[in-house]
Design a protein that fits this description.
binds pyridoxal-5'-phosphate, 13 strands, alpha/beta, 407 residues
C-alpha cells in the first residue's frame, strides 16, 4: 500500500485545463465591488430598467398565457417572429428573408454558435485589439491564434491593417467587429470603412461576424439616418448578429443571426446540443409586442432618453475633466471611452475610486485582447442605466479621483 495520490482522472485533467484556459480576469472581482450600495457605477453596460416596456410586455404575456399554452411548450423557432425580424432589419437598411433568420438565446449565443461553426481548435481569428469581452470568452476554450488589428476611439477598426493581414497569409476563420456604438470604444464606422470591409470579406471568403447589438440606439440629429450595417453591402460573407436585449429587455434572452440560408440547418444542430430551443415564451411575447406596433415609439423614446444621458455625460466630462483626459462622442450605443495619461493604470484607479469616492467604471484592460497593455490607461463609462443627475454626480466623484491620481 502506498500513499501516492492516484494519477489524475480524465475528468480531473479536463477540469484543471478548463480552469487554466477559462480563467476570468481579476477585474471581474473588482467589478463585483462596484455593486456595493451607494456606488455610482458606470462599470456595466446595462439598459435602463425604468425604460423597459414592461406594460406592453405584461399585456402580451397575460394574453399569451390565457389563450395559447404553446408559449410554455418546447417549440420550433416561432415563424411570425422571423418575419417581424425581417421587417426590423429593413429599418436598419438590410434586405433579408425569413429563411436567413436564425433565432438565438441572446446574441451571445449567436456568437458562440458561429464560433462552433467556424473555428477549429487552434485556428485563427481576427479581432480588434480592443474588443467586447464576450467574444474572447466564446473562443478561449479553442485556444485560437489571434490576429489583433488596431482600433481606436476616433475611427474604429483599422481597415488597412485588416487588408495587410489578409494579403500576408491565409484568411482567418472570421473577423468579429461591431459596426455601430462599439462596445467598449463607442465609435461607429464610416461608410467607406463599411464598404471596404464588406468587399474584403467577399474577396477573401472570410466571414465577418457583424455584431449590431447597439445599432438601433442611434443618436443622430433628426432627419439624419444611420449608415446601414455591413450586411447591407454583403449578404454571403457577413453574418449579422442582432439582439432584443438593448431595444426591449435582456431578460428575454432573445437574439438572432442573419446568415446564408445554407448554414441554418448546421446552426440548428449546434443549437440543439447547446439548449434545444430559444424559449418559446420570450419569442411569442416579443412577437406579440411587435405586433401591437409599439416598437417604433418605444425606440424613439429610448433614443431620446439615452441621447440625453449621453449628453449629460459629455457635458459633465467637458465641465470637469477637459484638458486632463480625452474621450469621444458616441453616435450610438451606451459607452464613452476615456483615455487618461499613460502613466495612470485604471485597474488600480478603479479600486481607489470605489473605496474613496464610491464611483466605478470598467478599466480598459478588461477589453484588451490577449492581455495586451495598450488600454491600461483607458476606461469605459456606461451611461444608459443612470439618470442625468446620477451621471453628473458620478463624474464629479470620478473627476476627484482622476485629479488626485494626476497630482
Ligand atoms: C457588443 C455586444 N454583443 C453582444 C452582447 C450580448 O447581448 P445578448 O444579451 O443579446 O446576448 C452584448 C452585451 O452586452 C454586447 O455588448
Amino acid at each position: 500500500v502506498t500513499d501516492e495520490p492516484p494519477a489524475p482522472s480524465a475528468a480531473e485533467r479536463a477540469i484543471a485545463r478548463a480552469r487554466q484556459v477559462m480563467r476570468q480576469s481579476t477585474l471581474r472581482e473588482i467589478l463585483a465591488l462596484a455593486a456595493r450600495p451607494g456606488v455610482i457605477s458606470f462599470a456595466v453596460g446595462l439598459p435602463a430598467t425604468s425604460l423597459f416596456p414592461a406594460e406592453g410586455l405584461a399585456r402580451a404575456a397575460a394574453e399569451l398565457l390565457a389563450i395559447d399554452r404553446r408559449a410554455l411548450q418546447y417549440g420550433i423557432p416561432y415563424p411570425p417572429l422571423k418575419g417581424q425580424i425581417v421587417e426590423l432589419m429593413r429599418l436598419r437598411g438590410v434586405t433579408c428573408r425569413p429563411e436567413q433568420v436564425f433565432l438565438t438565446t441572446g446574441s451571445q449565443q449567436g456568437m458562440d454558435l458561429l464560433v462552433r461553426l467556424l473555428l477549429v481548435p487552434g485556428g485563427r481569428v481576427m479581432l480588434e485589439s480592443t474588443v467586447y469581452d464576450g467574444m474572447p470568452m466564446a473562443i478561449k476554450r479553442l485556444e485560437p491564434e489571434i490576429l489583433a488589428v488596431p482600433t481606436d476611439l476616433d475611427h474604429g477598426i483599422d481597415v488597412d491593417a485588416v487588408e495587410r493581414h489578409l494579403r500576408a497569409g491565409p484568411a482567418p476563420a472570421f473577423l468579429y467587429l461591431i459596426t455601430d456604438g462599439h462596445n467598449p470604444l463607442g465609435v461607429s464606422l464610416g461608410e467607406a470603412q463599411r464598404r471596404r470591409l464588406a468587399l474584403l470579406a467577399r474577396q477573401h471568403r472570410m466571414p465577418i461576424l457583424e455584431d449590431d447589438a447597439y445599432g438601433f440606439l442611434y443618436y443622430g440629429e433628426p432627419g439624419e439616418s444611420p449608415a446601414p450595417p455591413l450586411r447591407a453591402h454583403e449578404d454571403e460573407w457577413v453574418y449579422y448578429l442582432g439582439s432584443f436585449s438593448k431595444i426591449l429587455a435582456p431578460g428575454l434572452r432573445t437574439g438572432w443571426i442573419v446568415a446564408p440560408e445554407a448554414l441554418l440547418p448546421t446552426l440548428a444542430a449546434l443549437k440543439h446540443g447547446a439548449d434545444l430551443d430559444t424559449p418559446s415564451f420570450g419569442q411569442r411575447m416579443i412577437s406579440s409586442y411587435l405586433g401591437t406596433g409599439e416598437l417604433p415609439g418605444h425606440l424613439a423614446r429610448l433614443r431620446a432618453e439615452y441621447r440625453e444621458r449621453r449628453d449629460a455625460l459629455l457635458a459633465a466630462l467637458e465641465g470637469r475633466l477637459a484638458g486632463a483626459v480625452r474621450w469621444n462622442r458616441p453616435l450610438a450605443g451606451m459607452f464613452v471611452w476615456v483615455e487618461l495619461p499613460e502613466r495612470i493604470d485604471t485597474a488600480e484607479l478603479v479600486r481607489t475610486a470605489i473605496e474613496d469616492e464610491k464611483v466605478a467604471f470598467s478599466p480598459g484592460a478588461a477589453f484588451a485582447v490577449q492581455g495586451s497593455r495598450h488600454a491600461d490607461h483607458c476606461l469605459r463609462l456606461a451611461f444608459a442605466h443612470l439618470t442625468p443627475a446620477e451621471i453628473a454626480e458620478g463624474v464629479e466623484r470620478l473627476a476627484r479621483v482622476i485629479e488626485r491620481a494626476l497630482g
